[in-house]
Design a protein that fits this description.
Blueprint (H helix, E strand, L loop, with lengths): L5 H20 L8 H5 L4 H20 L7 H29 L11 H11 L5 E3 L2 H6 L5 E3 L5 H10 L4 E4 L8 H5 L7 E7 L7 E6 L2
Parallel strand pairs: 1-2, 1-3
Antiparallel strand pairs: 3-5, 4-5
Helix pairs in contact: 3-4
Length: about 210
């Protein structure tokens, strides 16, 4: 049986430990789904096991229903799975990439911000919504903006020796007040605004020590 396979057992142990950790240790759910993101590592095993499970399920039903032909049913369900996967992938690709090119335009000002920051303070550490994109576009060291309010954000910034906080329209919900009132917090000095007048401004704050 497939449950005796070492990789299946290893995946099952990981799934159990992940569920336990996310239930007991990290009990407060993240808005972006920490459990499901971490569970992404299980997808290759799940996909492979699903095909085996479908095969066994068809055999089980065919043994109890006289009109079922197991081999034909496996072919129909197998083709159906492939068509469903292709349709779902195509829909997601259309929505995220082709439709208005939203995927490639998610961080349009990052190259400008990275160039400006490099010229101003090349050794600075910034806190930004998408650190990998910032790095890709030529930026330096960066950490992600936490999904917390201003005070916790400032604590994290000081802990990681952050020099600048960069806040864009895709900011965490607890920082909405800061985004709409960028000059309301004395500990954060607004030093630059990108995309002014577009409704999707990006604010650069210097973090006070």
């Amino acid at each position: 049986m497939i449950r005796r396979n070492f990789l299946i057992q290893l995946a099952a142990v990981y799934a159990l430990l992940l569920f336990t950790a996310m239930t007991l240790v990290f009990a407060f759910p993240g808005a972006r789904g920490g459990l499901f993101h971490s569970g992404g590592a299980l997808l290759p095993i799940i996909y492979a096991a699903a095909v085996v499970g479908l095969d066994k399920a068809v055999d089980w039903v065919a043994a109890r229903r006289r009109g079922w032909k197991a081999q034909t049913a496996k072919q129909v369900f197998g083709v159906g799975l492939v068509v469903l996967a292709m349709a779902l992938s195509g829909l997601i690709y259309y929505q995220r990439v082709l439709k208005n090119n939203t995927w490639n335009n998610a961080d349009p000002l990052y190259p400008v911000i990275a160039a400006w920051m490099t010229q101003l303070h090349p050794d600075s550490v910034v806190m930004i919504g998408n650190p990998p994109a910032y790095r890709y576009h030529g930026g330096g060291l960066s950490v992600v903006v936490p999904n917390e309010g201003v005070e916790t954000t400032l604590q994290a910034a000081r802990h990681y020796h952050v020099d600048y906080l960069i806040l864009d329209a895709n900011h965490p919900m607890p920082l909405t007040e800061l985004y709409h009132n960028p000059e309301a917090y004395p500990a954060l000095s607004l030093v630059q605004t990108f995309g002014q007048g577009t409704g999707s401004e990006v604010y650069v704050f210097q973090v006070g020590r």
